[in-house]
């Protein structure tokens, strides 16, 4: 199996992210909305509250930026039935700006008439969490009889019609994605005239997906209903949009524990970073004695992938798509020598650390030989601990 295709783990959401990156650049010029959205009140605000605050932004370009931010939050919260009217209202209000910008044109061509009509009829998204502690097995492959040299964390999930499939438990994917064939088997209502362009952390561009509505998705005893998902020809991914809603979790090499106990220690505090639709789990690290940000990406097969090359290359002649370097990785003051990969054609985005943008590294699934993740997004108390 091709390593690059398997490593496609993160829906950066193409055009939408380009627009929202522009929105981030305008935050200093329009502090009221973005200072509020970054506050504790704004982070926990309802969609109605977000809309009201954005409506108070009168400058057309800044109103367009905050409107796209609200639209992105609708995707994150799976508010499928609220998307059509708000989407069309932005399209009407900012018709000229959209017509003059190719990225905006593509973004606001996402839904056709049939998609709009279908979305309006979708019932509210809901989640019924498991009332008890559950320990679900993590499988190393898509199916027990499937041969692969790329071990990733696969989790069994079930649809309303009883069909089960294995999804990669992918903390590096902001949005859940379903393979086209799996979507048919699970009875996903496909929005046939939807058109969603996206890119990946790994340098792939102009990838296409459609959207669909999954009536029910069960993970153990927890059930998501009326779930907005992305449908493409790639692997099934259970993204951070759903993982983060399951409550307090403990992710180890072999199990996903739901309603886990609080960790007794916190070696490396984990920060949940939301850049509109692009969500990340990050922690402070040092690579080759330089401060950086580590993104915890369980959908990445490598132990460590760097956004920039190191100083000590290892000569490898049979791996033309990446370079290997020897270096020193430090987490929470503990340093270890490590071999890590750098892919010249891939584009891991920078992150914020101490108010400055720095290059990122990805801690992938092989790192879970040494670490486990205690995840509790709602409380803000998440940790990456040595095993």
TrEMBL record:
InterPro entries: Peptidase_aspartic_dom_sf, Retropepsin-like_bacterial
Superkingdom of this protein's organism: Bacteria
Protein name as annotated: Retroviral-like aspartic protease family protein
Gene3D superfamilies attached to this UniProt entry: Acid Proteases
Keywords, comma-separated and alphabetical: Signal
Native source organism of the sequence: Pseudomonas migulae
Pfam family, one: gag-asp_proteas
Residues of the signal peptide: 1-21
């Amino acid at each position: 199996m091709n390593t690059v295709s398997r490593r496609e783990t993160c829906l950066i959401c193409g055009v939408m992210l380009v627009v929202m990156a522009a929105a981030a650049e305008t935050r200093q010029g329009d502090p009221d909305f973005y200072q509020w959205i970054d506050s504790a009140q704004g982070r926990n605000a309802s969609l109605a509250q977000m809309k009201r605050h954005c409506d108070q932004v009168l400058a057309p370009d800044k109103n367009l930026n905050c409107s796209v931010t609200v639209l992105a939050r609708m995707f994150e919260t799976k508010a499928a039935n609220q998307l059509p009217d708000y989407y069309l209202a932005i399209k009407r209000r900012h018709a000229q700006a959209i017509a003059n910008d190719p990225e905006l044109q593509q973004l606001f061509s996402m839904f056709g008439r049939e998609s709009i009509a279908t979305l309006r009829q979708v019932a509210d998204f809901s989640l019924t969490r498991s009332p008890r502690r559950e320990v679900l097995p993590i499988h190393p492959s898509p199916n027990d009889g499937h041969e692969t040299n790329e071990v990733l964390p696969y989790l069994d999930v079930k649809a309303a019609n009883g069909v089960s499939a294995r999804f990669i438990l992918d903390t590096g994917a902001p949005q859940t994605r379903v393979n086209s064939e799996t979507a048919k088997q699970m009875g996903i209502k496909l929005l046939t005239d939807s058109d969603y362009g996206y890119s990946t952390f790994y340098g792939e561009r102009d990838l296409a997906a459609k959207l669909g509505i999954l009536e029910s998705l069960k993970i153990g005893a927890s059930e998501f209903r009326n779930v907005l998902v992305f449908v493409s020809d790639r692997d099934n991914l259970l993204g951070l949009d759903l993982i983060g809603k399951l409550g307090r979790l403990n992710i180890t090499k072999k199990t996903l524990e739901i309603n886990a106990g609080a960790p007794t220690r916190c070696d490396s505090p984990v920060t949940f970073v939301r850049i509109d639709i692009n969500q990340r789990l990050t922690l402070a690290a040092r690579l080759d004695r330089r401060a950086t940000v580590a993104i915890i990406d369980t959908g990445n097969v490598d132990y460590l992938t760097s956004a920039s090359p190191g100083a000590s290359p290892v000569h490898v002649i049979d791996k033309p798509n990446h370079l290997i370097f020897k270096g020193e990785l430090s987490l929470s003051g503990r340093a270890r020598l490590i071999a890590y990969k750098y892919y010249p054609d891939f584009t891991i985005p920078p992150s914020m650390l101490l108010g400055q943008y720095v290059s990122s590294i990805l801690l992938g699934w092989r790192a879970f030989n040494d670490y486990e993740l205690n995840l509790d997004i709602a409380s803000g108390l998440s940790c990456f601990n040595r095993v």
